[in-house]
Amino acid sequence: MSGALPFFAIGLLLIVVLVVWILRSRVENRSPLESRQDDDKSIASFHVDALPQRLTDRIFGSEDWDFVSAQETAGLRRLFLQQRTAVALAWIRAVRANATKLIHAHLTATRTSSQLEPLVELRVGADYLLFMMLCQLIALAIWLRGPIHLGRLTRYTDALSERLHELIVRAFPAELSSENNNRESYTTD
Amino acid sequence: MPGRLSRTDVQAALEDLKNRTLCSMGTEFARLIYLASTRDYNTGRYYHDGLAFQFSEEAAGKALAEAHAEVFRDIALGSLENLVDQLQLYLHSVGADPGETLRAWDKLEPYRVAIPVDSDALTAALFSANVKLALAIVEFRQRSHHRQDPQSA
Prior knowledge:
The structure holds two protein chains of two kinds.
Chain A: H1 5-28, H2 32-44, H3 53-60, H4 63-69, H5 74-112, H6 118-145, H7 151-171, H8 174-188
Helix pairs in contact in A: 1-6, 2-5, 3-7, 5-6, 5-7, 6-7
Chain B: H1 7-21, H2 28-37, H3 49-54, H4 57-77, H5 80-93, H6 98-108, H7 121-148
């Protein structure tokens, strides 16, 4: 099993190189105006709204559940789980949408970049995959036993999302990054 | 004058609003309802004659919007226990029969208009879910209180 690992890594690397090559050849076939418009669109949507930690802790923490449990009625407990499950699933959708937005912005940027680092791309891909798997796992756990006591898992998901964001910002081509900054300062004026 | 609004003006208006108006209200929930009521539901703009007279309409509007967002965040992200206590106090303070008010709140969901327009969808969803729960808990407490003491009904 361990002997197959290097071949698996090489295979994965070849896939990444192939994907990058296909994307770049597509970009080269586009007109400069078309390319410019697409870049602007991706940069404009690059701003990712991070959810406050306090919100995540409130949704998945046990403080409110302990309070409702102390009321000693099954109806209230049921209503609490029903309401919180809906909010927790909305949290999953929001963090997933943020990550997807980030990846799309990154892919758009890599298409025009001349300094691609396959290892970084591989890490971004692996982190994104792990993040999406974690989201699925949390969604499953919510369906099975409700959102309570999932605090540790959601904090890890938040940290992973943050790492993905940092990785992408670091790998972001400089020219697009500076253009992004210009745009942000323009819109906040 | 439009476009001449400074951060200092807004800050001063905000301080004035907190020290003169909001501090006299007993609970955060009462402050939230009050601040939401200063907003025109058609335009989303905030108005306060006294504050606008002292500062400017723009500074007053911005201060009200900031105070609204701050109070809303505190309530929405605060504990459910705190919300239940605040809601109970608020419902008793409005003057009408608490049972009737509870039923109206349960059916009409007037608390939804207390959500600031710029708040994110998830915080707004948590707020609505928590108010719904808090109403159910207050109602449950009221029913058990009536069962224990039927003369108070």
